Amino acid sequence: MTKRNETKIVRVGNLLLGGNNPILIQSMTNTKTKDVFATINQINELAKYGCDIIRVAVLDKEDALSISKIKEGINIPLVADIHFDPELAIIAIKEGVDKIRLNPGNITNKDKIKEIVSLCKERKIPIRIGVNAGSLPKDLEVNAENMIIAAKRHIEILEELDFTDIVLSLKASNIDLTVEAYKLASKTFPYPLHVGITEAGTSFKGLITSSIGLSKILEENIGNTIRVSLTDNPRYEVMAAKEILKELHLKNNVPTITSCPTCGRTQIDLIPIAKEIESYLQTINKDIHVAVMGCAVNGPGEAKEADLGIAGGIGEALIFKKGQIVRKIKEENIIEELKKEIDLF
């Protein structure tokens, strides 16, 4: 089986993807790409939460012509997601996109494929081939082996043109099928793998499905970049990806939050406090452990290993550090004071 550090390395903007380089986190905007202002704002928010590479849908010429304007307002590599229309790929490349998501087998005009490949070679832009179980060629039944066959058909078109700056994905909404396809791909192809469970579901179901599927794949030492696909704000995709990589010891400088499940002992409105602190921690690049506890039973006693945290009382809370109580604060000041302590850590 091809190990993570044995894959080819490709450059995506200012980042290296593949080989023994860090696993990169991706997401996709849900704004209209032609709405440049909204798209830039969403990309910059995702970058703040830890997104390394961002993809935008390119549905028409106006979307494609927006690429250069978007690039001016962001600081992470930009990928154009294109299906069927080669002209959109050509425009996006000329507009300065950093990577193309394109299946060359879906383009009937071979001269246009050659033009796309020539432009990508000239500008050192990689192409991601994305095979989805739900859209295999009609002559192929849905199984892992046929997903590999579909990938080969697309890859061979590029390889025949002496183009090998390829990234590959083989996604399905079924965990077992996805895992099997990636295992086969890692044995078959030398290219870096973009890993994810497609159409995984909402932030509840999708997070569970993605966590299980991605963990199984990543623990096989397979995968160079990941996307957690959720039917929700893409911010949650990035947050989930960071947490998965951290828990698998594949990413450092990611904060840890522990919080109690709440019960009848809880005397403060703990749930919104925990959610607010969790969201704030996602913007912090520190190995810090923060505990948000509802009562003195769970904190600081059971959370004494935390770097800092709070334990709720009746309309108030104790701030503690390394299990030692520091001071008492009012309930309405908990979030503000805890954020200050996080910043000072």
Summarize the structure.
The protein has twelve helices and 15 strands.
Descriptive report:
The chain has 345 residues and is of the alpha/beta class. Helix content is 39%, strand content 19%. The protein has helices at residues 36-49, 61-65, 67-72, 86-94, 110-123, 144-160, 175-188, 205-218, 234-247, 270-281, 297-301, 334-344; strands at residues 10-12, 15-17, 24-28, 53-57, 78-81, 99-101, 127-132, 166-171, 194-195, 225-226, 256-259, 289-293, 308-312, 316-321, 324-330. An 8-stranded parallel β-sheet has the order 8-7-6-5-4-3-10-9. A 5-stranded mixed β-sheet has the order 11-12-13-14-15. Strands 1-2 form a two-stranded antiparallel ribbon. The radius of gyration is 23 Å and the shape is elongated. The mean pLDDT is 94.
DSSP E strands, number: 15
List segments where confidence is low: pLDDT < 50 over at least 5 consecutive residues.
none
Helix count, DSSP H or I runs of 4 or more residues: 12
CA-atom Rg in angstroms: 23 Å
User: How far do the termini sit from each other?
Assistant: 42 Å
Share of residues in strands: 15-25%
Structural class: alpha/beta
Query: Main sheet, how many strands, which sense, barrel?
Result: 8 strands, parallel
